[in-house]
Amino acid sequence: MPLSTRLCALSVALFGSASALAADIQFTSKLNEKTDALVVFQDSEQSNAFKFLDRDTRKQLNKAMEADKFSGDYGKVVEVLAPVDSKHQRILVVGLGERDELDSAKMAKLGGNLHAKLEQKEAATVSVAFKGVNGQLSNHELAAQYAHGANLRDHTFELYKKEPNTHSMTYNLSVDDQGQTQAEYTTLSHIEQGVFLARDLTSEVPTEMTPVDFANAAKQLEQYGVEVKILEPEQLKSLGMNALEGVGRGSKEGSRLVVAHYKGNNDTPIALVGKGITFDSGGYSIKTGKSIARMKSDMAGAAAVLGTVKAMALAKADVNVVAVMGMAANMVSENSIAPGDVLRTAEGLSVEILNTDAEGRLVLSDAMWYARTYYKPEVMVDLATLTGSKIRAVGNRYAAVFSDDEHLISEFTVAGKAVNEPLWRLPLGYKDMLKSDIADIANVGSGGPGATTAASFLQHFAGETRWLHIDIAGNALASSGKGEVSAGGTGFGVRLLSEWLLSN
């Protein structure tokens, strides 16, 4: 299992190679017969996928499957220890379910879950009999997704543990076409690097991940051909970006605007805007309860859009994408903005601050203005851990998506399903709830659903640009591993955005 070994997680995340950050994946035409574990597959039609094994081993597996009433259901596993006349210490028969339902999402999830199971058994070498496995996708696509899921699950953040898990695993996957599978997986491995960056940035403790630390992390992407620009508080004020500057006013370092631009072609750019609150105390509307300890993850939107730019740059993708990230620590001090204050945004709209804990929409408002003004994007997508209301509406198994653009809603919904980062559409509206007596708008609604009023606040800053808002509150941190997601920062959004960019 990978381990970051520096005081701050950035070094490994930014400079580490794929092999340093993940399991060792090998695609071959011939199965390695001398590994700790062998994985074979069986679908619900009970087509025998392990005819290549000797007669006695097949007999033993069939007996175990019969005793366990195994019928090839998706994700079900029958394990045989120390099989007779086998060089493997264990053989796992894994159910694929219905072949015509086997897609990229299911295979990545399966790869992640099996990786966790094999790691628990301390298997160091694993052979996976993937030849002949097909479904909605071809063999090489499914094999690449299996490896993708395993690698994603393998990555963890254990920097602060005295005795971290240093176990590593090597996979040998026998596939129908070695070259095609490797080519397919190479793109996925670049996306993994973006996910790992986003996870590490999100998992890092808040005193080690300030807006300045985040900006320094972004600058490391210059080695991949990414143009990085950083605006400091005085520059923000000179541009009239008082909402972003104001949120960070209570912290020692103040706010930053971080821009990372990967120009893979000369098309009109796509703008990805990320909320980057490196710690959210709530300000004077201070948070109470245990949830405040999770507020290091309030910059997960910024981490995800930066990770996406890294993924596209590593893949040398044919896209023009710019990430614009509003970074601040929302702290309490004599310099902090106070409830009742009025801030004027770069858009020109004044905002009455009724609640200093509704700060994410403030940093996004100026970041969205900057993206529109300086890059004139074809599409603008913002990603933010924005509201507790979103969690109450759809929980943490979905992210909430808002837009008046039906095509964007459709494209992102499809992309989300493909990568196990599903979206649930919620409505825009209730703008009348944002009325203020002394400013153009208030930063919180006087009623209505909170996730919707927050999204509708942001809509004021979308202009005429095609725009989509994704609320990832509840999706940024995982308390335990599941599927291809390990515990800690999830990197939610990197795979979603990458899938959408590469597919559309």
Automatic annotation (TrEMBL):
<keyword id="KW-0732">Signal</keyword>
<dbReference type="GO" id="GO:0070006">
    <property type="term" value="F:metalloaminopeptidase activity"/>
</dbReference>
<feature type="binding site">
    <location>
        <position position="359"/>
    </location>
    <ligand>
        <name>Mn(2+) 2</name>
    </ligand>
</feature>
<dbReference type="InterPro" id="IPR023042">
    <property type="entry name" value="Peptidase_M17_leu_NH2_pept"/>
</dbReference>
<keyword id="KW-0963">Cytoplasm</keyword>
<feature type="binding site">
    <location>
        <position position="357"/>
    </location>
    <ligand>
        <name>Mn(2+) 1</name>
    </ligand>
</feature>
<feature type="binding site">
    <location>
        <position position="280"/>
    </location>
    <ligand>
        <name>Mn(2+) 1</name>
    </ligand>
</feature>
<feature type="active site">
    <location>
        <position position="361"/>
    </location>
</feature>
<protein>
    <recommendedName>
        <fullName>Probable cytosol aminopeptidase</fullName>
        <ecNumber>3.4.11.1</ecNumber>
        <ecNumber>3.4.11.10</ecNumber>
    </recommendedName>
</protein>
<feature type="domain" description="Cytosol aminopeptidase">
    <location>
        <begin position="355"/>
        <end position="362"/>
    </location>
</feature>
<dbReference type="InterPro" id="IPR011356">
    <property type="entry name" value="Leucine_aapep/pepB"/>
</dbReference>
<dbReference type="Pfam" id="PF00883">
    <property type="entry name" value="Peptidase_M17"/>
</dbReference>
<dbReference type="GO" id="GO:0006508">
    <property type="term" value="P:proteolysis"/>
</dbReference>
<dbReference type="Pfam" id="PF02789">
    <property type="entry name" value="Peptidase_M17_N"/>
</dbReference>
<dbReference type="GO" id="GO:0030145">
    <property type="term" value="F:manganese ion binding"/>
</dbReference>
<keyword id="KW-0378">Hydrolase</keyword>
<dbReference type="InterPro" id="IPR008283">
    <property type="entry name" value="Peptidase_M17_N"/>
</dbReference>
<dbReference type="GO" id="GO:0005737">
    <property type="term" value="C:cytoplasm"/>
</dbReference>
<keyword id="KW-0479">Metal-binding</keyword>
<feature type="active site">
    <location>
        <position position="287"/>
    </location>
</feature>
<comment type="similarity">
    <text>Belongs to the peptidase M17 family.</text>
</comment>
<feature type="signal peptide">
    <location>
        <begin position="1"/>
        <end position="22"/>
    </location>
</feature>
<keyword id="KW-0031">Aminopeptidase</keyword>
<feature type="binding site">
    <location>
        <position position="275"/>
    </location>
    <ligand>
        <name>Mn(2+) 2</name>
    </ligand>
</feature>
<feature type="binding site">
    <location>
        <position position="280"/>
    </location>
    <ligand>
        <name>Mn(2+) 2</name>
    </ligand>
</feature>
<keyword id="KW-0464">Manganese</keyword>
<feature type="binding site">
    <location>
        <position position="359"/>
    </location>
    <ligand>
        <name>Mn(2+) 1</name>
    </ligand>
</feature>
<feature type="binding site">
    <location>
        <position position="298"/>
    </location>
    <ligand>
        <name>Mn(2+) 2</name>
    </ligand>
</feature>
<dbReference type="InterPro" id="IPR043472">
    <property type="entry name" value="Macro_dom-like"/>
</dbReference>
<comment type="function">
    <text>Presumably involved in the processing and regular turnover of intracellular proteins. Catalyzes the removal of unsubstituted N-terminal amino acids from various peptides.</text>
</comment>
<dbReference type="InterPro" id="IPR000819">
    <property type="entry name" value="Peptidase_M17_C"/>
</dbReference>
<keyword id="KW-0645">Protease</keyword>
